[in-house]
């Protein structure tokens, strides 16, 4: 346990140093080459935009965070639930999974105007766009994890007359957890992209909406700051998934 904690601390320190080095190099390069602010602002000039009240950073960031988290949570819930249903009903999987593959090929940008027509402006259509992008990888990886179960374990449970629920709870679900979290990590990244796609198409609030507003005035520092905040939101969601994976997958492995 102590060795794992020390290794995690060293890894975090290395990651932090690399990120700080990139910021320092960015600042030095902009100052040394006198790069105009509208082309590439320095990190200091970017951070200074947080003091400008006209951007409403807090409310716009909160709106985008709700869209990302809502789309991701809905995608994880629906993706895992459908994968479980497909594992219990192979005929239904044969009928519907190819349909989901086809629907996933639709460019999500093309769905944006339709969502606006159906659900009007606001957070809801952006949540649905984020969901439409992130749910499919979770569905596929979870379905694969539920299929890849040791045949000997299945035969053992069946020989003991275990119910389908017992088989799922004791064998399939624990064995599929690495696949589920793998899909959720991909989904966390895609949920950020989905929310921003929705805000770019039509929105009245959010970081994507703010970027469109400041683009016309070449306010590059504000645009870069919006990108930084989006990145932090994505990193936070990804870190949450990693923490849950460590809790449920790594923790179970240690107990066994």
List the helices and strands and how they pair.
Layout: H1 2-33, H2 43-48, H3 57-88, H4 90-104, H5 108-119, H6 123-147, H7 151-159, H8 164-201, H9 207-215, H10 220-255
Helix pairs in contact: 3-4, 3-6, 3-8, 3-9, 3-10, 5-6, 5-8, 6-8, 8-9, 8-10, 9-10
Domain ABC transmembrane type-1: 61-242
Family: Belongs to the binding-protein-dependent transport system permease family.
Transmembrane segments: 12-30, 127-146, 179-202, 222-244
Provide structural commentary.
This protein has 256 residues and is mainly alpha-helical. It folds into 2 domains: 1-34; 41-253, MetI-like fold, CATH 1.10.3720.10. Helix content is 84%, strand content 0%. The chain contains 10 helices and no strands. α3 (57-88) crosses α9 (207-215). The longest helix is centred in the C-terminal third of the chain and has 38 residues, at 164-201. One of its GO terms (cellular component) is plasma membrane. Keywords: Cell membrane, Membrane, Transmembrane, Transmembrane helix, Transport. Residues 61-242 form the ABC transmembrane type-1 domain. It is a multi-pass membrane protein. Belongs to the binding-protein-dependent transport system permease family.
Summarize the structure.
Belongs to the binding-protein-dependent transport system permease family. By secondary structure, this protein is mainly α. It is built from ten helices and no strands.
Q: What labels would you give this structure?
A:
256 residues; mainly alpha; single chain; MetI-like fold; 2 domains
